[in-house]
Amino acid sequence: MKDLWRLIRLHRPEAGWMLLGLLLALLTLLANLGLLALSGWFIASMALAGLAGVSMNYFTPAAMIRACAIVRTAGRWGERVITHEATFRIISRLRVWLYQRIEPLAPAGLQGFHGGDLLSRLTADIDRLDNFYPRILLPIGIALLGGLILLGFVARYNAAVAGVLAVGLSLAGLLLPWSMHRAARPHAERIREQQARLRSHVLDSTQSLAELTLYGALPSQAARIDGIDTELHRAQRRHDRLHTLGEALTGLISGWSLILVSLFAIPAFSALSGAQYAMLALLTLAAFETVAPLPLALQLLPETLAAARRVFALADTPPPIEEPETPEPAPKAYDIHFHHVSLRYPGRRRAALEGIDLGIAMNSSLAIVGASGAGKTSLLQLLLRFRDYAEGEITLGGTPLRQLRGDAVRRRIASLSQHSHLFNASIRDNLLIADPRADQAALQNACARARIADLVERLPDGFDTWIGEAGARLSGGERRRLALARALLKPAPILLLDEPTEGLDYQTEQLVTDALGELLGQRTLIIVTHKAALLRLAERVLVLERGKIVACDSHGALLETLPGYRDSFALPDAFA
Fold it and tell me: Do residues 68 and 299 lie in contact, with contact meaning Cβ atoms separated by under 8 Å?
């Protein structure tokens, strides 16, 4: 129930559109009921008048019948337009709301979610919520309002008929839908679970198709997907059977209500005219249109709430960083200081970083080396405010990092990670992410520094060349250089580079190293690397081991003072 009310609250900003759609739907329903009832009364009255040989005013009822037909048609069109507009606005608002909730989570807060499952929550589960207003809330509202108006109208003519109708509508509109809801709930949960698993497995299979083919694992992966698909179809068949049963039982209740009204209620308790008898009989048959959508609505409700719970679970994930309530203004200087900083990941016994004391002067350069798991990437993530430290303090320009908004910190840092993502867009679009205001000269300069300008010039469309999903149309080295060009394009005083020359041939690596050397004294350079040329480039080299600082000195000094430096970090080319 908590999820239901929360979902309703999220729909509240579009309440005006939703209410207008409800009124049009109610008007359409009443026009349809009026058309059938009035037509039955008119035909019976004309027949009786003909038998009696008397005349009657048929202009007024004929005009009313035409008016009901026009209102029904126009109302149906208007209701469709308004309810679709309301639904599109709601879904659009939900997408923005969810994105705003998960943006502060990236990347650390999203590591507990599988990539395919995360995509399913962002797309399919949000799409599933578009059922809530038009197929759940709207039918319930129409059934309540339309049912009360109908029963009030019938009661003016005959209380017994109104009583039979009330029982029939209660059975078809309350008891039956609630029973269908309880029966469909486990199947709906199963459908959402299997759909999420299927999307996740299909996405993983698509992204790792080359590896699956290489290791001959395609048949086993296909068998797993087929098994999930079979379970999904089984749950969907059970769910559909319940839907069909609900429709059949609604029709059965409707038919029996008409029989009871015709055989018992009207003859026993009323002295109605023949025309009124026909009107109430047809109105009884049409009355169940008000509750006909309810079995489907309450069958869709568990599935919709299951999707909502998955969305809420993602949206409610606590961010790894708490933003300051009253942030400090951005500092003018950009010297960085770590004061006895420690970081521990949840569920890990050993600290990722422990007792880090480090100063990095503005516009200086620092290389970081260490074995896998030594804490190099963790150090960069602390600087980027992707994670928060457990102990100590980090300052930027003398201002504690925790007193600055994460966005404000990241605007002053350009970063190249080991797995920088390239979008399925043009080279220009991928570069402009770093600086949307950059002109052509700035793009060319960044590409020249990253030693990819020649490649761009050779392409038929130049900067407008489409590079495919994750840069699939480029080689590994070209993708790396394009990501480096994007980092260099960003007008930020601090540059964090995680293995910037990884995947490059020796000649290109030297060219990129020379380009980075041109930045010395212009920006603060922090480079995670195991390449000798970059270690020689940096003013100091920070050696990490198991989350602790082993040494921090110039490359030449470490060669002389730190035992095992050459062998520990596998840099034989650095000492030739």
Answer: no
